[in-house]
Design goal:
The structure is a single chain. The protein is α/β, with parallel strands linked by helices and 252 residues long. The chain has 2 domains: 118 residues, Up-down Bundle (Butyryl-CoA Dehydrogenase, subunit A, domain 3), CATH 1.20.140.160; 115 residues, 3-Layer(aba) Sandwich (Rossmann fold). It is built from 11 helices and 5 strands; from the N terminus they run αααααααβαβαβαββα.
């Protein structure tokens, strides 16, 4: 049986951070979970090297989930349960198969399949909001607009530059911002978002082809990052998590 190496776990950290941040709705809370679960995983591997989970990412996803479940969380009301959100994040954002997600979450495969099917059916109607899209490529912007609307949200503006994004945000006061990082000649998406958040708070999802660059844990980074190209379901669960603030935790 394959034995995980320390360097394999360290290379998997950016993906564990993405999962943890999206789960908690917060960079600090998510990164703290990852730091704790890395220590746990290294200690477990030293004691039990023949663990059935041999993929580094999956081992850290399991560690994050365990730490999260142990920390306590608030109720989800009439929305998705914590386990359903975890399944959606693992299978859409992290592209883990439903079969592999079950042992990560410590539930039987048949339970995972049932929870996931129900979550996907309920997702679209769960949380709708006004969305500002920041994207300089017209075709990509049109695709994003269609995807956002298919998720049940309202697009209140599409900006192709920093200046336009700041102006539209002041006019529309969006409930969610979906931003590309590189706006070409139009500037930088992160700069636009920083300027907007100085006077108007809204959750932000960054879209990038290089997510590991925003998941280092070394600076102030986004809580929600999705990778280009992505499926509609990935955007749906990311927007749901962003709008609802993640699964509320009592402590980290």
């Amino acid at each position: 049986m394959t034995v995980l190496r320390r360097e394999d776990l360290i290379r998997a950290l950016p993906y564990a951070r993405r999962y943890a941040r999206a789960l908690t709705g917060s960079q600090p809370a998510g990164d703290a979970l990852v730091a704790d679960c890395l220590r746990d995983t290294l200690a477990e591997r030293a004691e039990h090297p023949a663990d059935p989970i041999t993929d580094a990412r999956h081992a850290l996803y399991r560690g994050v989930t365990r730490r999260f479940d142990e920390s306590g969380r608030g109720g989800d009301g009439d929305g998705l349960s914590a386990k359903q959100r975890q399944l959606l994040l693992l299978t859409s954002l992290e592209e883990v198969s439903a079969g592999d997600a079950a042992p990560i979450l410590g539930i039987p495969p048949e339970t995972a399949a049932q929870l996931l099917g129900d979550a996907r059916e309920r997702l679209r109607a769960s949380a709708a909001t006004d969305v500002l899209i920041i994207e300089d490529e017209p075709i990509i912007a049109m695709d994003l607009e269609e995807l956002v609307q298919s998720c049940g949200h309202r697009v209140v503006g599409v900006a192709s530059s920093e200046t336009e994004a700041i102006k539209l945000a002041k006019q529309t006061r969006p409930g969610l911002i979906l931003a590309d990082i590189n706006l070409g000649l139009g500037g930088d998406g992160t700069s636009a978002v920083s300027a907007i958040l100085a006077s108007h708070y809204a959750p932000v999802i960054f879209v990038t082809a290089y997510p590991e660059r925003l998941l280092t844990g070394d600076a102030v980074e986004p809580a929600f990052v999705i990778t280009k190209p992505f499926e509609p379901l990935t955007l749906a669960i990311a927007t749901y998590q962003a709008v609802t603030g993640g699964v509320q935790m009592d402590s980290v």
